[in-house]
Amino acid sequence: MLLGQRADMETLEMVRKELGLDQSRGKQYLRYLNDLSPVSVYNGENTDSYFYLDPDRYPHTGKLMHAGRLVLVVKPPFLGISYQNQRSVSSMIADVIPNTFILALSSILFAFVVGLILGILCAIRKDSWFDRISLLVSTVGVSLPSFFTAILFGWFFAYVLGDLTHLNLTGNLYEIDDFGAGRVLQLKNLILPAFTLGIRPLSIFLQLSRNSMLDVLNQDYIRTARSKGLRYVRVIFRHALPNALNPVVTAVSGWFASLMAGVVFVEYIFGWKGLGYLIVNALNQYDMPVVLGSVITIASFFVVINILVDLLYAVLDPRVRVE
């Protein structure tokens, strides 16, 4: 894949040695972990195959110490080189991760705000027609897979109603202007993919906030606050809502991390050039270093987001203490 169809065996073996593909599976795995680590160990007498240790090409790489033939090296995590264009996987991910982050953040904010408001209204107006219709719609929404809703919403809002909505079926956050204005911000291209990704978490947030708010409204301290003559709006937003947010925040953390991984089909359908778009193209081209690097990046987001949410619990609920 790197050399093309006319590569001779000598050149092919040289590339295999450079990539470490001539070693056993176990050594390849250990080498990959070593490349991934910010502090790595290398043989000081044989660093030719580790081309990213070349200070002329990668000046940010620094050596810590020598221990005989071994050298400790400080460097950014190295995710490999793309088989297709010979670019570093890290640089390719860095180019597209902002688009994926913006899309996931927009989707989760839309789902959280709308779901929380509807959940509070459903709890206040329990068993009303509004409550029942909202629960029905949320049940339908959570059952819709993202790749299906992406096709459905794209066809309906960008094709059938395109003259009214003026939305594009495909498009990126920045596009090249046809009249020479360079890159132009196109926020309208964010609407359909963000709405599509936000449907399922919105349904979950609605049901969670409704059930949690109903539990809190039945507590004794809420009845005490009402009996003291506090305004109902103040009781809801000052006393009930903060204590009802914990399960919703828990769901937000999981869904936000999931959206970073679940954007694959949505980005590809809407032509949104993010991490999911990169993964699909890499799979089609059998570019496995890009696939592996993308999966590791998504897993890292999962871990970091869940740690941050655990720390946030102590802020939202004084009963939670971080030991």
Strand content: 5-15%
Specify the biggest β-sheet. 3 strands, antiparallel
Secondary structure category: mainly alpha
- First-last Cα distance: 52 Å
Strand order of the largest sheet: 1-3-2
**How do the SSEs run, as a string of H and E?**
HHEEEHHHHEEHHHHHH
Q: Number of helical runs?
A: 12
Which bin fits the share of residues in helices? Answer: 55-70%
Here the CATH topology of the largest domain equals MetI-like fold
Q: In the CATH classification, which architecture of the largest domain applies?
A: Orthogonal Bundle
The CATH homologous superfamily of the largest domain is named MetI-like
In the CATH scheme, the class of the largest domain would be Mainly Alpha
Number-wise, the strands total 5
Low-confidence parts: none
Mean pLDDT across the residues is: 78
